[in-house]
Amino acid sequence: MSRFIYITFFTAFSFQAIGQKTIFLWPEKVPNQREINEKEIQFENDILKISNVQNPTLEIYLPAKSIRTGKAVIIFPGGGYQFLAYDWEGTDFAKALNSKGIAAFVLKYRLPNSKSIIDPKWAPLQDAQRAIRLVRANSEKWNVKLNQIGVMGFSAGGHLASTLGTLYSEKTLKNYLDSIDEINARPDFMALIYPVISFDKKYYHGGSKNNLIGPDSSIELVKKFSTNLNVNADTPPTFLLHTADDLAVPVHNSLLFYEALIKNKIPAEMHLFPVGGHGFGLARGKGALEEWPNLLFDWILGLN
After folding, report:
1. pTM of the complete model beyond 0.85
2. Which domains does the chain have, with CATH numbers?
């Protein structure tokens, strides 16, 4: 049996979870990972947090047939590349997207602090590339248009989304594992919510940078993962949201990315709110900021 047929069979008979269905990204063998005795950790207070991800998954949320638009968003929860705020910045927003007829997919991606990962800096991007390729490979089954698949990330998840949007063609795998790895990984649009963008110490979120590439990383590596420096004419249209009083990830991160988009003539929409802090998710009960999801929905639905 070919690897491609195996993947198709697997995704058709995946396991049930919180969403309608959850599939493993790498059903045969997770790349860039050694087999050691590590387990995923989940803990919940007000937010479900997941760390030490060993087998990354894609949780599927499909809208009702009567309202579906053919648009899709893959969501990358944040957590400083240390954990994933899986419901707060993941499944909660997937349900909100579904209410607008937009298919949603929540990525549980590997985090660089796991000892099982061989080259930590590439593992999140490997999972992000695989996720969008899987959505494209299954687009007909999930009633998604091939040219309407975007990504969305919160905080460090915003860094991952912007990394995918600027380094989508990066060869992160030594060898293709199956035919899905040959599919285009470029997102058709991006939504970056209070995103980490720059690893320049003047603006960075130290935890995200140090967790992904280390505290003593080279200047070349800092530039490689400062996504505003990688914007070019092929970067997807982008929606940005930030607050001026964000003390964790300075608003300069969104400003730098917006400036790079405009310089390269990429369609961009940015919303800056005076207050709201960091990590507000859907911003329920936060006054005017609570309207921000509707701004995003209008933007996505207005894209051609």
Report:
1. yes
2. 3-302 (3.40.50.1820)
